[in-house]
Amino acid sequence: MKKIILIAEDNHVLRKAIAKNFEAEGYNVIEAADGKEALEKAQNPAVDLLILDIMMPKMNGYDVCKSLRNEKNDLPVIMLTARGTVDDKIDGFDSGADDYVVKPFSIDVLFKRVEAILRRKNPEAKQIIKSGDWEFDFNKKSALCKNKNIPFSAKEFDMLELLIMKNGKPVSRDEFLDRFWQPNTFPTNRTIDTHILEIRKKLALGKGIEIETKHKIGYKIIIQ
Asked: What is the greatest pairwise CA distance in the chain?
């Protein structure tokens, strides 16, 4: 089931940009343009996490977060702000925030913060994919094919997990490089192709999961 992210940000352009990126990652997104709207929509029990700007009209992010906590609402909250002093961060955590991201920020960093909090808040949620002969447990980084353990490297697990999270949408080589390789390692598109080749060799040991090449785009997962 797709996770639902509530994005509360009064800057229309920034809010839409964040929403578009999260939707591309396979999340469902709800938007709020001010603090009161954010507090109202955060009452929805289907919402999994709130990305909350601090400086908003009608009600600031600190007060939104305090109100949620006073109501015993433990919805995970990541605060976004241009104010990055130690005191600002302390105020954010004191109000009940789970994390604090300073603008300008990398969207990939925000993705990682969201993923980490959702895992921490839902430790019982097993990231297990079963299809055909295969069973992948992405929490334990283990893969079984016909009940036999098949070794995948950490990088291969990361790439497979991203492909699966995309729900069949293609992942470009550039996205793999940006997410999983440091620039100082001098990775290239060939690096991605080599890793995909190794993953395919292992997936060929059983039926149920395949990786398809999308010409001039990248790769997508096919779960049968």
From this structure: 58
Helix axes 154-165, 189-203, angle to 10 degrees: 90
Range of the domain at 215: 128-223
Q: What is the CATH number of the domain that holds 58?
A: 3.40.50.2300
The closest alpha carbon to 53, from 10, 98, 110, belongs to 10
pLDDT grade, residue 181 (50/70/90)? confident
CA-CA distance, 166 to 171, in Å (whole number)? 8
The answer to whether the CB of 22 falls within 8 A of the CB of 7 is yes
Specify the CATH number for the domain of residue 132. Answer: 1.10.10.10
Residue 126: band (very low, low, confident or very high) from pLDDT cuts 50, 70, 90? low
